[in-house]
């Protein structure tokens, strides 16, 4: 067997191995060529990893660590297309935080940011892995529910409401009570794009 390490920034993250049924088949020339190939492979793997990382940052909201508007629309349009193609259910929940501007004005934008992060964390704990949570903008959030019709989406929406309204949010300035306004819509013959689904939920 001949083996060469895959290295990036001085760290070994894997090995490239060659095996032969003939004992003593590999020599130093083989080893040198294998290492040269492993070095090139390591660069390609690291570049691919960095590219994937950059792509993930591009669709992630920096404050709340959920999908940002771009990511939400990319995944939302994909889910709508899939639901229409296969005749599956799909619902969306739009959430608007009531009087959020007053929190920023009264307590500071830092406290407001803390509140938004806490809300996102509570909602992440309240939905399935297949559901998509994104920050639509400012204090508005969207939850996309694949394989879910309107009747099944309504209890989910209420669970999201209770996750925020049921317990005050603890901040450095004290506990802050919150309420949210929620709209729910499902895909249909007339509501058949992600934009129209959002608009219906917003209404």
Helix content: 40-55%
Q: DSSP strand (E) fraction?
A: 15-25%
Mean pLDDT: 92
Going by helix content, strand content and strand pairing, the class is alpha+beta
User: What is the CA-CA span between the terminal residues?
Assistant: 66 Å
Q: How many beta strands in the DSSP annotation?
A: 8
* Quaternary form: single chain
The coarse silhouette is elongated
Strand order, largest beta sheet: 4-5-3-8
Q: Describe the sheet with the most strands.
A: 4 strands, antiparallel
What's the Cα radius of gyration?
Answer: 25 Å
Elements, N to C (H/E):
EEHHEHHEEHEEEH
The number of helices is 6
Low-confidence stretches: none
What does this entry look like structurally?
The chain is built from 6 helices and 8 strands; from the N terminus they run ββααβααββαβββα. It has helices spanning 28-58, 69-86, 100-107, 109-124, 150-165, 194-202; strands at 2-8, 11-18, 90-97, 132-137, 140-146, 169-171, 174-176, 180-186. Strands 4-5-3-8 form a 4-stranded antiparallel beta sheet, with helices on both faces. A two-stranded antiparallel ribbon has the order 1-2. Helix 3 crosses helix 4 (109-124). 24% of the residues are buried.
Topology (SSEs and partners):
Blueprint: E1 2-8, E2 11-18, H1 28-58, H2 69-86, E3 90-97, H3 100-107, H4 109-124, E4 132-137, E5 140-146, H5 150-165, E6 169-171, E7 174-176, E8 180-186, H6 194-202
Antiparallel strand pairs: 1-2, 3-5, 3-8, 4-5, 6-7
Helix pairs in contact: 3-4
Which descriptors apply to this entry?
two-stranded antiparallel ribbon, 203 residues, 4-stranded antiparallel beta sheet, elongated, 48% helix
